[in-house]
Write a structure and sequence with these properties.
Pfam families: GCS2. This protein has 76 residues and is α+β, with helices and mostly antiparallel strands. It is built from three helices and four strands, in the order αββαβαβ.
Length: 76
Amino acid sequence: MPALLALSVSSPFWQGRDTGLCGYRLSVFGEMPRTGLPDPFSSAAEFERYVAVMQAAGAIEDASFLWWHLRPSIRY
């Protein structure tokens, strides 16, 4: 069982194909719009519009669901 778990946790395969990477999970995770580093925002209003669009799409409940490495604070 441990060998099966090890293969499934960070597999080099994606959709049945060898990706050439040691593990593909982080590559897939990094493509999600609420992870990684965001594109720069020119203003607080632009950030608020982005949050509103993500909420309307059902992708997040509020700005705390943006799991970026760096994110604007809505309090300051």
